[in-house]
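Usage

Read records sequentially. Each one opens with the input sequence:
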Amino acid sequence: MTWELSLAGLLVGALVGMTGMGGGSLMTPMLILIFGFNPKTAVGTDILHGAVFKSFGAIRHRQLGNVHVPLALWMLLGSAPLSLVGVQIASSFSDATQSTMSKVVGGALILGGLGFAIKAFLKGYVGEEHLHLTTRQKLIAIGIGASCGFVVGLTSVGSGTFFGLAMLLVYPLAARRIVGTDMLHAALLLWVAGAGHLIHGNVDLHAMAWLLVGSIPGVLLGSHYSIRVPERALRMTFAIVLVLSGIKLLEVPAATLIIEISAGVAGLALATLIVRAARTRYLAPAPD
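and closes with the structure output:
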């Protein structure tokens, strides 16, 4: 189980590099459902892997001027300590209670999927490149960090979903600034939570190393390309994947049947989009 992990890392890394979304929430269910990791180790490994992985993106966004550093740090003030509370609770699950841990992660995945679905219908603000935070906005940032940071430390889900959604709803920042701020805060938060999981022995360093072998070149290569897929359709696809993964981990009755039907419908929808895009390109008039 080496090259398979690198391949998974490469696919997720390329996905994040090309689209800017989806990596963090996909890795934990992949480790549990495909590679058979116990949930506690999957969460810890994914968090520390994400810390390294997202640092590359955070550095790049900082260079591009896409980061509102004060907002990221105010959220970190709330998220860092509460993420360690989540880590402590996750570490308290014994081998005999791993099924409970799976259900906790499953519930978080469903919430994360719903968050992606909501974000698909929200748009960032056009202006406000240089937002000066008021005292009220700083306190809200700490509250957002505390509530969402706890979930991230417990389940690894939400570092790129819940915070971005909250910022979209609360702060009048341009979309690119929300993405960059979210990336920097996520990287810093995951280093804190990842260190906590490492201390508690919840990280498979061997697996993490093989994931990074694929994910780091994947994100660097993927950043040079772009996918012409509507952002709303992409977010809805991720939402469906997360919700279905959550249903599987929650062991909902007839979960396999639900997943198979949903996958079939999603496949037909994707095929329709591809055919429609191909026809549009074929019928488009040639440029002069």
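Summary fields computed downstream for this record:
- The two ends are 53 Å apart (CA to CA).
- The chain has one domain: 3-252.
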